[in-house]
Amino acid sequence: MFDLDVLRAAGVNVPKMNKEDVRQKTQKEPQWVHFGGGNLYRAFHAEVAQTLIDQGVLDTGIIVCETFDEEVIDRVYTPYQQDIVEVIMHEKGRLEQKLLQSTAASYFCHPSREESYQSVREIFKNKTVQMVTVTITEKGYGLTTSTGAYLQSVEQDIIAGPHAATHTMSILVSLLWDRFQSSAAPLALVSTDNFSQNGQRFQEAIWRIAKEWALKGHISQAFVDYLHDKEKISFPWSMIDRITPHPSPVVLDQLTQSGIEGLSLIHTSKGTNIAPFANTEATHYLVIEDDFPNGRPDLTKGGVILTNRAVVDKVDIMKVTTCLNPLHTAMSVFGCLLGFQTIADEMADQDIRRLVKGIGYLEGLPVVEDPGIIQPKAFIDEVIDFRLPNPLIPDTPQRIATDTSQKMAIRFGETIKKYVERAHVEELQFIPLAIAGWMRYLLALNDEGQPFDPSPDPLLSELQNHLSEIKLGATSDTKAYIQPILSNEALFGLDLYKAGLGEKIQGYFEQMLTGPGAVRSTLHETVGGVQE
C-alpha cells in the first residue's frame, strides 16, 4: 500500500476523503460497477469518480471487475488497496500527480475464481446499482470470426450457459440473469470503449448471447424481454477520448526520485502493461447519452458531457472517423515500418506529419458534421499541434497498431462511404495510402527489409496467410493476393474494389514492395503537396 505521508512529501495531491466511509457505503449500497481495470479506467473513470467524491456529489466508490487478466487485480489493485497514483503529463512538461482513492473494491470476475465471482453476483443483485461502465477494448465485444462463425470461447459459453461462461459478454449476461431473478431492477450498461456506436455493439452482443441461451433453455424468455425493455436496461452510447499509454519508465524514474519507493512496471503473463501509477495526457473528453433508467450521480460535476444519442453519435463520428483515430492508425503502421518508437518522434517527421494532416484536414473535414459541442477543426488543431507531439506522452506506434483489423471499417471505411455517396471517391489519396501501408505492415518486414513483430491482432495470421506469397522486391501483380482482403466488407465496411479504391491501394502497395526504402519514397511522394 502507499504511504500517504510519503506521497504528500513527493508532491502528490492526496484527497481529504474518509476512504473507509466510502468503502463501507459502497459495500452496503453500490452504485457504480466498472468492467476492465486497465490503464484507461485508472487514468479517467477513477478520476471522474474522485472528483465527484471530493465535491460531495458521490459518497460511494467504483467496484472494478476484471474478466481477462487476474494479475491486474493481484498485482496493482490488491497490494495498493485499490489506490492509484495518476500522473497527468501536460504539454509543456509539467507533471501533475494525484492519488485516486475512488476505487472501493476490485474483483477478478471469472467463474475460475469462485469466491470473487460470487461476490460480484451478489453486487449485481443489489437494486442500488445504477450503472455498469465498460472498457475492455473493441475486440471484447466481438463474438464471431471474420467469417461470421462464433469464436470458440463463445460457442462453449452458449453450450455451458450462465455462470460457466468465460467471454466477458457472457459473464455480463450471467450477472444480469442474477439481477433479473433477484429484483429485475433497472440498470444502465455503458460502453466507454473507443469505437463508434459502442452502445449499439454492446447491446447486440448482450442480446445475442441471451437469445442463444434462451434457445438452449438456459434462461427464460421473460429475461430476454427484460433486456429488451428500454425502461429496464439501457445501452447509452458514448464518446471517450484520452490518450492513456502504457506506464512510462520516465514517469517511474521521476516518481522514484521524488521518494516514492517500491514501484515497478508490470508486464503480466497475459501481456498487460500496467503499474501502480497511470500516466495520461491533460486533454480529455467523455460524452455520454443521458439514458440511466435507475438514476445516476451528477456526472457533469466530474467533467462528463451528458447529451442525447444524436449528438453523441456526431461527436464520436467526428473523432473516430475523422479527427483523431484515423490519424493515429495511419501513423502507427508507418511508424512501425519506419522504425519509430514514439508517437511524438513521428510528429517531428515531415512526411508523417503531412500524412496525418492530409487525412484529417483534407479528406476528413470536408465530410464531417459539426456536432455543435466540439468544433471539428479546433479538435484536429489540438490533436496535431499539442496532443500528438507531446514528448511526455510515452505512446508508441506499436501500441496504437494493436488490433488494427478491428478498426479499419470505422476509422477509414466510414469516410470512404461518404466519398462514394458523393461520387468523389477518386479524390481520396491519403486514406488509400494508409490502407496500403497497413497491407505492407502485415508482411512484418520494415522499410529496410528487416523482420519485426507486428502488434497483436485477432486476424493477424489469417491476413498474413493471404499475403504469404508476396516477396519484397517482386514486381508481379498482387491483386490475387490482396483482393480477398480489400474486398472483405467485414473488414472495411464495404468492398474497396467495388468502391473504386482497390486499384489505387494496390498501386501504392506495389510501390512499397519495390525494395528497401520504398515505403519512405512512396510516402514522401504522395504527401509532398500537403501544406505545412
Q: How would you describe what is shown here?
A:
With 532 residues, this protein is of the alpha/beta class. Helices cover 45% and strands 11% of the residues. The protein has helices at residues 4-9, 19-28, 39-54, 70-77, 114-124, 152-160, 168-182, 198-216, 221-228, 249-257, 309-323, 325-338, 343-347, 350-364, 376-387, 397-400, 408-421, 430-441, 460-466, 479-486, 489-492, 502-511, 518-527; strands spanning 32-35, 62-66, 84-89, 95-100, 103-108, 131-134, 187-191, 233-234, 238-241, 266-267, 273-274, 277-281, 285-289, 305-307. Helix 18 (430-441) crosses helix 22. The longest helix is centred in the middle third of the chain and has 19 residues, at 198-216. The chain starts with a helix and ends in a 5-residue tail after the last helix. The mean pLDDT is 96.
Q: What's the topology here?
A:
Elements: H1 4-9, H2 19-28, E1 32-35, H3 39-54, E2 62-66, H4 70-77, E3 84-89, E4 95-100, E5 103-108, H5 114-124, E6 131-134, H6 152-160, H7 168-182, E7 187-191, H8 198-216, H9 221-228, E8 233-234, E9 238-241, H10 249-257, E10 266-267, E11 273-274, E12 277-281, E13 285-289, E14 305-307, H11 309-323, H12 325-338, H13 343-347, H14 350-364, H15 376-387, H16 397-400, H17 408-421, H18 430-441, H19 460-466, H20 479-486, H21 489-492, H22 502-511, H23 518-527
Parallel strand pairs: 1-2, 1-6, 2-5, 3-12, 6-7, 7-8, 13-14
Antiparallel strand pairs: 3-4, 9-13, 10-11
Helix pairs in contact: 5-7, 7-8, 8-9, 12-14, 12-18, 14-23, 18-22, 18-23
